[in-house]
Structure prediction request, 486 residues.
Amino acid sequence: MTVKQRTGLWILLAAVVGAFVVGWFIRSRRMSAMDHVPWAAPKVERDLTEIRSDTLRMLTIRDPLIWEERPSAVTGFEFEVVERFVRQLGVPLKVLEMTDRDSMYQWLQDGRGDLIAASYVPLRPERKWFATSLPLYTVNPMIARIRSGGKEGRTPAEADSVVVSDWSPFRNGPHGRGPVKGTVTARCTPDEALVDVLLGRSAACVVTDAVAMHEGVRMSALEFIPVKGGDREISFAMRTNAPELKATLDTWLAAPEETRFRSAMLDGYLGRLPKPGPLRQRTMPVAADSISPYDAEFRAHGATAGWEWELLAAMAWRESRFDSTAISSKGALGIMQFMPTTAVRYGLDTAMSVGDHIRAAGRYIARLDTVWMRAVPDRSQRLRFVLASYNAGVGHIIDAQRLAERLGLDPKRWEDNVERAVLLLAKPAFYMRPELKNGYCKGSQVFHYVRDIIGLYEHLVRSGKPVRKRAMGASPTRASGVMSRG
Prediction:
């Protein structure tokens, strides 16, 4: 090795050592700064004895799995665990909603709160600040993003940005790194980050697998992709000078009967996680010479609604699979599945013919079309609102349209706009808004209903049946339960 080469190696080694020293110095400064935050140590002496003579104060955030207020109840897995614990202690529970993590930490150390229940996982410096309970459950990271309409979507690595909530168990640490690479930390709750993805405000976000299972069905426009990042154990946090509270809580959490109950309760909050991938497309079997046994009736009465008769056929298949004797668990009846009150309004009963039911459905569609004519002038888009109203009722769809406008979406377009707002009508934070008048709506049902009818109609067109060309332009739309249940 020449002198010049040795000199170069020494320079390279010096550069590496220098970079390491600088990095170590910066990290040390950051860690030192974290050690000197105002909430690094308790400011009061308040343990279980004081709590028993007063109230246990739970510091939390608004989240479907943590704590959420509904019109007639308060829900949330962590809230229910704490509520069960204080019932065993025989003390009142006071819930304090927080909007800022630093303030939550300060309130705990000041004695204004006694317990943090916020999907909490301590970062390294926080382990010195707080005591934590035994784990409640374990979570793994997933990425939430919008499903593609029919083609394979982008992989997480191709997303424009992946947001992680400042409250997330997978939030970035003091070094700016988290278990999921390439994330951008946002000062919002995990639920708000998820809603931002649904509304197109961000490309993707990090959620827990528990959140994915809880929200997977009711937020049908989203898909959830597992990513590597390691699991995290969710616990409660307390002051370090409250050892009696910690010991009593841990003993109670470890009791076999409580462990079994907690596991069963968590199962009740978690649902089946839908498979990732494009939104499903329904198909229907079509015979060589007909769509259904009732094609003549669909032809005779379809025009009364101002739409092609094949649309009514698609609706009937979606509603009842062409079974004129079908009766649903909620009492909807007949080939078009009219609810009893709607059936009476249109003069129907079980003794009337299939043709009468199809004609009534046509009349009902025509009436809904008139209702939406001014609000949604475009005929193709209006059909989608008509079908949504047939499935959920006009009031809920007006709420969804109003909510879409408030959220910056186009209130006159269904796809990717009002259909996303309708999904939010299943979340109390949205359907309890004072400007929304009709309360809870199972938006995922409406979302799939409209898309299913569109898919079925297009299937009929592709199958080569004598469908007029004008039909596709008129807006293939999905309908089924909506009309019947209006």
Notes: The two ends are 87 Å apart (CA to CA). Residues 3-35 form the longest helix (33 residues). The CA atoms of residues 126 and 432 lie 36 Å apart. The chain has 20 helices and 13 strands.
